[in-house]
Design brief:
It is built from 26 helices and 11 strands. It has 741 residues and is an alpha+beta fold. The chain starts with a helix and ends with a helix. Residues 725-741 have low confidence and may be disordered.
Length: 741
């Protein structure tokens, strides 16, 4: 492989205009296709195979035209201190708002709180539910403004009015200024690493090119494959991250080969043949992790994973072709100013001297056991809180108190009890019952009698009278473990209840039940996902390093870092330690998708660092260094770049911590801390310590397996046999005549 990529790098360098124009043309074609492609219909979030989804589907089938997924606005009224909401003046204000809201466009129904008995026992709080025909994203600005004006009038009349639901939800900023600061920090890290504006800008340029192509391609294919606006979120984040990382390693290797005395074209070929080989296999591990998201069985997550995998593949192709092509345009610009002005002799001397990476590795290999124990015990201790992991989907209770949704949530909890914000929707299918009304009444009675249910609503029948829907209000909040136990208790008594209901069956749905079901499905899929991803990656690493122990070590290190990251997330967002420092106002369960996202994304990035770092160590080993010398040599060449790549990722991910929404903060914090653990603890401490302890055993492979495995030559051993072409100093006038050949 190294030889093939070597020739590809030389060809891209020589035919730079062709490759540069080719990628510009690809961007133009995908961009044009994106402008002409019809928008994909938003099918919403679906989770096949869970009870709450089946119940939701049954509701849509038996209650046609009710827009079960239409937007809603729950308007909460709180009377002034010392007054009742039922007082004549306050009641008139509420009824006026209800009448005005009913006249709004796209409104399907408005429930008067006084007719529906939606008034708290202490008569201080009431709520009205406004239903819309369209989804929240499809509501017109005029319709929203009409309702907002009505709410403003009620507030001016002296009532406290807050709004929950998704119709008038407060827009959430993805990252705000903190994200911009993260990107700026990434640019500074690149500049410090390379000491050249051109070298710092090239990875950013090629990464943006890749993101542009992948995003326009996703838009162009959105209608054909049902991709939504959220599908490309992960592709953008990982396309940018991997694009910068991959170009960073190739440019760094190009500068290293130039310092050895190779002419630009030869240096470009060697950079793509060696670092490019690592890029290919690192990219494949990321693709495996992302494509493996399909194991979870969530269509939205599967589409996001496959789209992001496509974005990473584009980043790999651009790294192998566009990067050497751009190096062909400016072969000396990416070199540091000191190297450009230095002589050939002094540059070789600079290449051989020790740096911070080799000095650090020397310390670790001299004391491997203490460093190994420190890393394993430290990460293990941080991972302990992960044993208390509780999955869920934080709702309005996790939002800032500055939002009206959070204030509405609190007002309803104070007025009607904590479980009021998470009612369970019970769908009764009485089609096979002899007496549907009696069957529904039986189910309602038994559900109401379950411990933990404080009230049930009157059943609502469909036109045929064979299906009914009612709500059961728990005594505990939606995210409380008691609510989860209640849902399990009702479902556990299903056989008994249905036997009494004379042929009728029932299912539980609603936001609370859906969140519980999603959490359980994701938790059940986590182990199979890990097995698939780690298993396939083990095979790839076996091919790359031709060793049994190195892939095992890589998998163990990854598991340690991801568990420590999960433990940190639980520590902050579930248990509340140091939550105030991150602006987390309400602790609760961890987002259901968080473990899957964390495993998939961090696994891909961790294997990036593993391949880049250990491939340089193996390269030194196969070229004759002892195991400990190889570790020091590998760190001398790659530690600085790995640290820079990790710092860039941490800066980008940390930008999401500044977002206003708790879930976005959680994702940003989890990814940033996971990269920190993996890059600075696992790769910088555990890897050199383990390899030095393993010695030659770490690089052994059974002979029968060695004969079976193909010789991929990621280290570029065949390329090293080529005689290097001496290069004059960049300051030498004769250099300009030969530098491009």
């Amino acid at each position: 492989m190294a030889t093939v990529l070597y020739h590809l790098g030389r060809a891209a360098f020589r035919w730079r205009w062709f490759f540069a124009l080719l990628w510009v043309a690809v961007l133009g074609v995908t961009g044009f296709a994106a402008t002409k492609a019809p928008a994909a219909a938003d099918d919403g979030f679906t989770m096949p195979g869970i009870e709450s989804q089946k119940a939701f589907d049954l509701m849509e089938q038996r209650f046609p035209g009710t827009a079960a997924d239409g937007a809603t606005a729950r308007i909460v009224f709180v009377a002034p201190t010392g007054e009742k909401i039922t007082a004549t003046q306050n009641k008139a204000v509420v009824e006026s708002l209800v009448d005005e809201a009913a006249d709004g466009s796209q409104v399907s129904s408005v429930v008067d709180p006084f007719r529906a008995k939606a008034v708290s026992k202490d008569l201080t709080t009431a709520y009205a539910t406004v239903g819309f025909e369209a989804k929240a994203d499809d509501l017109t600005d005029a319709g929203k403004k009409h309702l907002e004006d009505a709410i403003k009038k009620a507030q001016e009349a002296g009532l406290t009015v807050e709004v929950g639901g998704d119709a008038l939800a407060t827009p959430t900023e993805a990252g705000g200024p903190a994200e911009a600061i993260g990107i700026a920090i990434a640019a500074v890290v690149l500049l410090i690493t390379f000491g050249s504006m051109a070298a710092a800008g090239l990875p950013l340029l090629t990464a943006l090119l890749g993101v542009g192509i992948s995003m326009t391609a996703i838009t162009a294919l959105s209608s054909a494959f049902g991709l939504t606006s959220t599908t490309g979120t992960l592709a953008t984040m990982l396309g940018l991250a991997c694009g910068i990382d991959y170009a960073l390693f190739v440019v760094s290797r190009y500068r290293e080969e130039r310092a050895k005395g190779h002419v630009p074209r030869e240096a470009a070929g060697l950079a793509v043949g060696t670092a490019g080989s690592s890029v290919v296999f690192a990219g494949l591990t990321v693709v495996i992790a992302l494509a493996g998201l399909s194991v979870v069985g969530i269509p939205t997550l599967t589409k996001m994973g496959l789209a992001a995998a496509g974005g990473v593949l584009i980043a790999v192709l651009i790294c192998l072709t566009a990067v050497p092509a751009l190096l062909g345009f400016w072969p000396n610009a990416v070199l540091s100013r000191g190297v450009r002005k230095d002589s050939k002799r002094s540059r070789r001397k600079q290449q051989k001297r020790h740096n911070a990476g080799s000095r650090w590795a020397s310390i670790v290999v001299r004391h491997p056991v203490p460093f190994l124990l420190l890393g394993v015990v430290g990460l293990g201790a941080i991972a302990v809180p992960a044993l208390d992991l509780q999955l869920g989907m934080p709702g309005d209770e996790a939002k800032s108190t500055s939002t009206t949704e959070r204030r509405a949530y609190d007002a309803l909890a104070d007025g009607f009890g904590p479980g009021f914000n998470g009612p369970l929707t019970v769908v009764v299918d009485a089609k096979k019952a002899h007496d549907p009304n009696a069957a529904v009444a039986t189910v309602l009675r038994d559900v109401k009698g379950t411990e933990g249910v404080v009230s049930v609503s009157a059943p609502r029948y469909n036109e045929s009278g064979d299906t009914a829907v009612f709500t059961a209000t728990p005594s505990s909040s939606p995210t409380d473990a008691k609510t989860k136990d209640l849902v399990k208790a009702i479902r556990g008594e299903r056989a008994v209840i249905e036997a009494e209901a004379d042929g009728a069956s029932f299912e539980i749905t609603g936001t609370t039940a859906l969140n519980i079901d999603v959490a359980e499905k994701v938790q059940a899929a986590l182990v199979p996902y890990l097995v698939v991803v780690v298993g396939l990656a083990f095979v790839l690493l076996l091919l790359v390093f031709r060793s049994l122990l190195v892939p095992v070590k890589a998998a163990a290190g990854f598991l340690l870092s991801v568990l420590a990251a999960l433990g940190s997330v639980v520590l902050v967002f579930q248990q509340g330690h140091a939550a105030g420092l991150l602006g987390v106002e309400q602790t609760g369960p961890i987002m259901s998708m968080m473990p899957i996202f964390l495993v998939g994304i961090v696994f891909g990035l961790a294997m990036d660092y593993e391949v880049f770092l250990v491939s340089r160590i193996r390269e030194a080993y196969v070229h004759g260094d002892s195991p400990r010398e190889a570790v020091v040599s590998g760190f001398r060449h790659s530690a600085r770049v790995v640290v820079a790549a990790a710092a860039i990722m941490m800066a980008v991910f940390s930008g999401f911590i500044g977002a206003g929404e708790s879930m976005v903060k959680m994702i940003g914090f989890g990814l940033a801390i996971a990269v920190f653990f993996d890059a600075f603890v696992v790769r910088m401490m555990l890897v050199p310590a383990a390899l030095s302890l393993l010695g030659d055993r770490g690089w052994r492979l059974p002979r029968w397996l060695d004969r079976i495995l193909p010789d991929i030559d990621v280290e570029g051993e065949k390329l090293s046999r080529r005689a290097p072409t001496p290069e004059p100093s960049p300051a030498d006038p004769a250099h300009q005549a030969v530098s491009l050949h």
